[in-house]
Amino acid sequence: MEKAKRRRTAAPGATGGRDAPGMDAAGSQDGQAGTSAVAATDGQAASRDDAPAWSGSAAAAQGFRDPLRALWSGGGAAGLAALDLTEQERAACDLIQYDFDPAYYLLTNQDVCSAAIEPLHHYLRSGRLEGRRPAHWFDPAYYRNAYPEVDDLGCDPFSYFVQFGRAQGHATYRRNGPARRALDAARPPASRQPGGGPGTVMHLHPNILLQEMRARLSGARGLTVALSHDQYLRNVGGIQILVASEQAAFNARGEAYLHLAPAVPLMTLAPDGPDPHYLHLTMDGVHLGAATRAELLQALASLAPDLPDLRRLVVHCLFGHSTALLVDLHARLHTAQAGAPTAVFWVHDYETICVGYNLLRNDVAFCDAPPAGSPACTVCVYGAERPAHLAAIHVLFHAIPFHVVAPSAAALALWERKAGLPHLSATVGTVLRTDATATRRQVGAAAERGSPGNRACIAFVGHPVVHKGWEAFVQVAAELQRSSAYRLLHFSSCGGQHLPGVEHVPVRVSLAVPGAMTDALSEAGVDLVLVLSPWPETFCIVASEALAAGADVLTLECSGNVANLVRQTGRGRVFAAANDVAAYLTNVQAMLDIRSRHEAGAEVGRVRLLGATAALALPGGDPDPAGAAGGFETLAGAA
């Protein structure tokens, strides 16, 4: 029987409708394979000792424990004919051999690769009974659930799809699985319980508050009052690290720095109602305690004669604060002698465009901020609250003349296109730079990267949340959890969510240990960091830390500044969707790219945070951005 020789492993498309060579209208090859070909094998799975070794070339067999050497071998018709198969297995082999993906099967099943078992034989004898995927585009569990007739007939799902399901347009895996999970969990922000705040606060007596602030303002060259959504000394994240660098830079210049955070974190604006509404007050890196808005404003009024002429109001995040508080703060910082303070609004996200600050419709897909009240907006869980939120934002921007600063050109372009708010200026403020100090090379062993004894390392860095790409990473990890070629790691300060085959590495970045993440990535020898953010990130410290540690970055087209960074540096790849990332990693090309990077070498170094507002050439700012650069940096090992 003459059959096509081309192995076809591309994804079958949205419906799974991909025609196989030599198949008739009924879906059988040359009309020969009957229903017996799709029946599941009876009895127990064969032991590894009974399974034949990979039937490729002698060179491939010699180096089999490096899976990539085996990927090109492909035993061909002679190799398949030599397999010890039952009559039913032989019929199934004839049916599926052109759709089965041996490269994928070896990369995602470490036990098969390590035992040097011929992959198709293993799948026919035991893999299909264990629910293993025969190709990246086919999920047996999903297929059985979606098409119950497969179980009713006692059939192997993959064989059934090849013989019948493809012609009927069956889907072969759940489309947008991570997106569906996010959609199921989405709810309006007002209905979400506040979280992260303590049950009690240390409420400062007003006299103590006044005393502490007066002592720290004594002799200060300037005063910056900054606001963000939480306590930057207690929590870890991109904005918190930037605030810490900003505080350190201003303090190094002899200026005072007062940071305000809501005692109860919110993912919305705080109501403008009467106190008590407690704020955490941190001054010059020391947490003073909590005070009400009225108490803080009164203290600033009492200190007005002692305030330095150089005054700033800096907004890093509005959530948890009321717009009335900002207007009052701006008025309290205004003096007859020095005039109004310099007001700076950072576009770290898109909270001025929607209460859904990352512009993810129903926490799933980037929406590009359609007009409030439009059908495209009202279908979203944020749609109902958006008009009132935008009204409050407009009042704020008409009351305070802000200099708007975005950490990247991509973020600024989106803000200017969608916000429609008055402002004094709009600029890009560079918040970090990466200084190369060495080149990491794997001498002599690069060709072995991806073998069981020298697995390539793939990492997710940060909190396991949807908008940072966690669900997409879960999807990729599911594909690779049995792989002998990859080691999967999750680096974060929080307890890692248990995923099969993924190791959690606890790391906490702080003022005391600013280089903890880059050091950890470098020491682990991470090859690839997955930054699969489904929205246009305004900046991304994780991506810079990855590059400084010698790793390349895999990201999505929609990730904003992350995609731009990858393209500018040539360090990684940009994909259209998470499915494409999984397909790439289960393909030979991914390991070839990793080995090429090891052979060529990867620059490592340090990520230097420039002090945020302290580095801006704005009125009230340092005209020399380099003057603020010495206060805060993260170091990566050069090993």
Quick recap:
33% of the residues lie in helices and 16% in strands. It is of the alpha/beta class.
Unreliable segments (pLDDT under 50, ≥5 consecutive)? Answer: 1-78, 620-639
Count of alpha/pi helices = 24
Which structural class do the helices and strands define? Answer: alpha/beta
Largest sheet: 8 strands, mixed
By DSSP, the count of extended strands is 19
Strand order of the largest sheet: 4-3-2-1-5-6-9-10
The domain count comes to: 3
Please name the CATH architecture of the largest domain: 3-Layer(aba) Sandwich
* Coarse morphology: elongated
Query: What integer is the average pLDDT?
Result: 81
CATH C-level label of the largest domain: Alpha Beta
Strand percent estimate = 15-25%
Query: How many angstroms separate the termini?
Result: 56 Å
List the helices and strands and how they pair.
Elements: H1 58-62, H2 67-71, H3 76-81, H4 87-96, H5 102-108, H6 110-114, H7 119-127, H8 140-146, H9 149-152, H10 157-165, H11 177-185, H12 206-217, E1 222-227, H13 238-252, E2 256-262, E3 278-283, E4 286-292, H14 293-302, E5 310-315, H15 323-332, E6 342-346, E7 360-361, E8 365-366, H16 375-378, H17 386-399, E9 402-406, H18 409-418, E10 425-428, E11 432-440, E12 456-461, H19 470-480, E13 486-492, E14 502-506, H20 516-523, E15 528-531, H21 541-548, E16 552-556, H22 561-569, E17 572-575, H23 578-585, H24 588-600, E18 602-609, E19 632-635
Parallel strand pairs: 1-2, 1-5, 5-6, 6-9, 9-10, 12-13, 12-15, 13-14, 15-16, 16-17
Antiparallel strand pairs: 2-3, 3-4, 7-8, 11-18, 18-19
